[in-house]
Amino acid sequence: MLRSLKDLEHYTLYASDGEIGTVVNFLLDDASWTVRYLVAETNGNSGGRDVLITPLAFREVDWATRCFRLALTRDKVRNSPGIDTNQPVSRQHELDYHRYFGYAHYWGGSGIWGSGTYPTMLAGGMWDEAEASSLGQDVDRPGDRHLRSAAEVRGYHIQGTDGPIGHIIDFIVDDETWEVRYLVIDTTNGWFGKKVLVEPRWAREVSWEDGKIHFDLTRKAINDSPPWNPTAAINRKYEVQLYDYYGRPVYWHTEAVLECAAPPVGPVI
């Protein structure tokens, strides 16, 4: 199911031995547009600091009661590697994190989660020190993937071919793969505050330094796309309408055949 990332903030986190804290942010993979970690603000009994929680740690997600149940103890979370969520997270920190928890790493495979599409497919794997060491030789190369704060990217400006068209106010994610399926764009900048969806993989360029995402689409094309209703669930009928409007191939047919969707390519509007 597709869900608003903003709506997942403030979900309660439960370790196997009790409540651990609340979700306050998310870290996005800036290459694959996938949520790699939740940022949790732990309560006083667990150290009172921000920690990272990977979807690999989920034992159960209870959408009705707005809570994530983890296959971890509170002490295990409390003693996890520290993190400065105000800075991009390097691969080296991820190596330390996965080593600590004993999780298999997700990078280096053909899918967005190792060799597959879902974090559950990777959750049963184990940390491989030899493989991690070989990967670790290149962790400091310029241009390596980093993780970005969703709170930071929310607010990035959207640039059409003929000028700015608005800014990101939210992300729509798949609650099984944790891919960011759509950016929610507020076109308030002269377009009467309409809210529309755009696939991030359609972007021509992302300027992380300037906080801008460039699309080969005109401002009018983006503004005239099917409007997004935040009070209604996004269903397949709406997605078909959206992809038809932009003239892009739908992602779910590719996923069914190849397991992992390839970035859609379509004509400039």
Structure in words:
The protein has 269 residues and is α+β, with helices and mostly antiparallel strands. The protein has 2 domains: 2-148, SH3 type barrels (Roll), CATH 2.30.30; 154-258, PRC-barrel domain (SH3 type barrels), CATH 2.30.30.240. The chain has helices at 5-8, 74-78, 91-101, 119-123, 129-136, 150-153, 188-191, 219-223, 236-246, 251-258; strands at residues 2-4, 12-15, 18-29, 34-42, 50-53, 58-62, 67-70, 147-149, 157-160, 163-174, 180-186, 195-198, 203-207, 212-215. The strands form 2 sheets. Strands 1, 9, 10, 11, 12, 13 and 14 form a 7-stranded mixed sheet that branches. Strand 10 (163-174) and strand 11 form a beta hairpin.
Short description:
The chain is α+β, with helices and mostly antiparallel strands. Helices cover 24% and strands 30% of the residues. A hairpin with a 7-residue loop joins strand 4 and strand 5.
Low-pLDDT residue spans: 256-269
Radius of gyration: 19 Å
From the 3D structure, determine the CATH topology of the largest domain.
Answer: SH3 type barrels
* Biggest sheet overview: 7 strands, mixed
CATH class of the largest domain reads Mainly Beta
CATH superfamily of the largest domain: PRC-barrel domain
- Number of discrete helical segments: 10
Helix content: 10-25%
Structural class: alpha+beta
**How many beta strands in the DSSP annotation?**
14
Provide the number of structural domains.
Answer: 2
Q: SSE string, helix = H, strand = E?
A: EHEEEEEEHHHHEHEEEHEEEHHH
Distance between the termini: 29 Å
Mean pLDDT: 85
Which architecture name of the largest domain does CATH use? Roll
